[in-house]
Amino acid sequence: MPETNKYRPLIFSIVFIASELSSPKILRAPMMGNRTRATWLKNTRDQRRISSAHEYKNGWRTFVQRYFYDMTFHTSAAVIWARRCADLPLENPMNSEISSPQQCAFFFAVVIAVSLAGAPVAVFATAAAADAASLQRVTQEMADAVAPGNTAVWDRYTDPGLTYVSEDNEVKNKTQLLADLKPLPKGFSGNIKIEEFKLVPFDGFAVSTYIMNESENAEGHALHARYRATDTWRKTAAGWKLVASQVLAIPKDPPQGVLSAAELDQYTGVYELSAQTHVGIRRDGDHLIAERDGRPAQMLQAEIRDVFFTPGRPRIRRVFLHDTAGKITGFADRREGEDLVWQRKGDLASG
User: Fold this and answer.
1) Under DSSP, is residue 161 helix (H, G, I), strand (E, B) or coil?
2) Which of 145, 240, 308, 347 has the fewest beta carbons under 10 Å from its own?
3) What tens digit of pLDDT does each residue of 151-204 get?
4) How wide is the angle at C-alpha 58 spanned by C-alphas 57 and 62, nearest 5°?
5) How many Cα atoms occupy the beta-carbon half-sphere of 318 within 13 Å?
6) Would you state the torsion angle of the CA atoms of residues 253, 256, 262, 268, taken in this order, to the nearest 10 degrees?
7) How far, rounded to the nearest angstrom, does the alpha carbon of residue 43 sit from its chain's CA centroid?
8) What is the DSSP string of 6-28?
9) Which domains does the chain show, CATH number per domain?
């Protein structure tokens, strides 16, 4: 991310110049205790010079850490250096080494460099937050333009190479999408609210995902639907442009139907997928329970006669099958239009 790199030359320059200013071969680092316990640290010029591409390759954080480590002074020494360089009185001058102006320069340069080290991250985070707020506003503006069929808004924010995939699995380009964007018919109204908006920024583009909470009034009848959308945005000189969008309908449980206890009892029994796999279905009050070895029991709620669903799993239906005489012969596990058929083998007592 380019934003994280622009402070690196400044940080390198501050620390490097300061290290050259404080160039004595021997730096005395005061330790806790008296003068005799002071440690002499060899710190030659060649150790502190940027003399190879290897150091730069290791990154600016490694660079700063290395120079900061080379000083190896204790906390007490840092406090003494700071107070001395600021012309503040020392608590115990007899036990402290007085820093030279060059050492003061190096000390404060390191402090500045370490402080600036966090600046790129903060700048990038601020920019990312601003982009997220901006694109959320734009996304809501585009959603508001759907009901009235305002193509000008979509034309403004979409890239000429747009690929749009609808919840009905229709793949459209920009021209096709704008042509299909028409006002709702007379007697219909609605709105879409953008919720749970999240943006992941990259170098020159960003990916957003969110919920479209749709409310519609169809000639006095209220309708409600939710969709999950994922968008890809490209940053251009003219601003952010939508280059790809995919919409998925979020399935939800259907309304529960009502069947009598006698009607529900007709579905109880043992059903077989193969010689090794069986499921038992029994009634429990106003619903059915499907029990299969090695799996948790599942509730089956009636949607309409012969059609059942498990709450929380709206993509699957269990459709009970009959012969010509009306007798139940099995059921189909139906998902995405595909049936997995189970055969009825008998009632629970004989199963």
Assistant:
1) strand
2) 347
3) 999 999 999 999 999 999 999 999 999 999 999 999 999 999 999 999 999 999
4) 140
5) 22
6) 10
7) 47
8) TTHHHHHHHHHHHHHHS--SEEE
9) 2-117 (no CATH), 122-249 (3.10.450.50), 261-346 (2.40.128.50)
